[in-house]
Amino acid sequence: MLPVIIDILSWIMILTGGAFTIIGAVGQLRFPNFWARLHAASVSDSAGVILLIAGMCLQAGPTLITVKLLVIGLFLFVTGATSTHATASAALVSGLTPPVLKQKSGEDNSADKSEKPGS
Amino acid sequence: MRTVFTTLTLFALWLLMSGVYEPLTIGFGAISSIIAIYVGKRMNAIDRHPLEIHINFAKMATYFGWLMVEIAKSNWEVTKLIVAPKMRLRQNMFEVPYVQKSDLGQTIFANSITLTPGTITVEVEPGHFLVHALAYSEDDHEALADMGRRVAAVETSAA
Amino acid sequence: MMFVVAAFALIVAMVCLLVRLYVGPTVYDRVLASNAFGTQTVLFIGVLGFLTGRPDFLDIALLYALINFIGTIAVLKFFRYGSMGDVVKRPAKSEGE
Question: Is A73 within a domain?
Fold first, then answer.
């Protein structure tokens, strides 16, 4: 009985993890400017990584493989955020201005495609 | 004391990673941990910036669970934005003051902001972070301040 | 079977990222896409280890994760400061960096 439950759980996790990974990549394609794409990358970096690693851990069972997977997961979890921040801050420093809401008039700035190439 | 602890941690990591328990392999692990510690000591003599950890680990586990729920929630929000046929983005940059005293606490807070999709820490300035939001609303200030208070509660007072 | 699905999802995502890598108007779009591509390669190597029944692949995945992070940071540092950190060209640089 228990193996069936574990199988179902890891199926769910891997399916949703794969879905979030694809959604993050599609977001990188669809979003209009660099600053929005940062957020799309963070979807596949957090939800995709966590769910896929957890699904693989359930399949591996209590072995050394699970420990390795957890180390990989923790590392990706920390460095994903750090490199996203590093990319954003490098872009800001080199003069890629982020779109900012205009006071009261700006209801929706998704059409804003203003992108100046870096120095 | 600290050196011995670090050596033992490195050796335990070796044992977990290798999975081969023969005398030769274990010996290699011990030797490489000691070499790593020696090199680290030499580098520390130049750098002089030891990491100090003032974190309550039991509270950290609770915070981690809370962070997972937040990540799930905001993932769902951003997913809706991505798959919606007509995108309604309200991108904005704003300042979020931080209340953490130690470097590690500030790092945990900034990384938590970045990990929850929809908000990204762009720059660290004295007293506050510059945060970029994908779908900005007035409630974001209060939500991030709440997260900051939770991170500050994880810190122990020694900082 | 489930790992085939996971590998397929990762490949679809990687193709999307390759398109962004090709199109991406600024250099930071490309850095972002290649970083995400690296993350997905790590996961793909892990899945491949399960598919072929050789869990040793996880060691390669771990190594790839380390190299991907350091590579991204190095590239960004180069674009941000114009050098890899040697202060020969910039004598006036402050000490904190």
Answer: yes
